[in-house]
Amino acid sequence: MKTSGKRKQRAVARQAMQIAALAPAIATARLARVATTGNYGALGTMGAEKATTFTSAAFGMMFAGAAAFAKSAFVIANAYSPWGGTARQRVARVQSALADASAEVARGALAPVRKRVVANSKRIGR
C-alpha cells in the first residue's frame, strides 16, 4: 500500500516531536541517577550509546538517501517521456517524488534515534 506524502511528513514530524519531548526527561533522569549513585562509569556508557545511535542514524540516512536518489532519478527521467501525461502532471510527479525523498531521508535518520529514546524512556519509567 502506497502512503501519501503528507502522511509520511506527518509521521516524520510526529517522530521528531516524540524525540524532543522524551529526550530531556531521559537525560535528566540518567544524570540524576549518576549523581545519586556516584557511578560515573555510566557516563561513559551513555556516551558510547549516543555515538552508536549517531552512527546508526548516519547510516540510515545514507541508505535512505541513496534509495531516494535512485527513485527520484527514475521519476525525473520519466518526466521527459512523451507518454507521461501533460507537462503539469509530470511536474507534479517530480515535486511529489522530491517531497517523499526528503521525508524518507529524515525518517531514515530519526528511526534509530527514536527507537533508542523510546527504549530508554520505557526502561527508566519502570
Name the descriptors.
126 residues; mainly alpha
Characterization of this structure:
There is one protein chain. The chain is mainly alpha-helical and 126 residues long. The protein is 87% helix and 0% strand. The model has no long low-confidence stretch (mean pLDDT 89).
What is the helix tally? Answer: 3
* Gross morphology: elongated
* Record field, number of beta strands: 0
What percentage of the residues does DSSP assign to strands (E)?
under 5%
Radius of gyration: 20 Å
Instruction: Report the major sheet.
Output: none
- How much helix is in the residues? over 70%
Distance between the termini: 37 Å
**Poorly predicted residue ranges:** none
Give the topology string: H per helix, E per strand: HHH
Mean pLDDT: 89
Structural category is mainly alpha
Short description:
With 126 residues, this protein is mainly alpha-helical.
Show the helix and strand layout.
Elements: H1 5-37, H2 41-79, H3 87-124
Helix pairs in contact: 1-3, 2-3
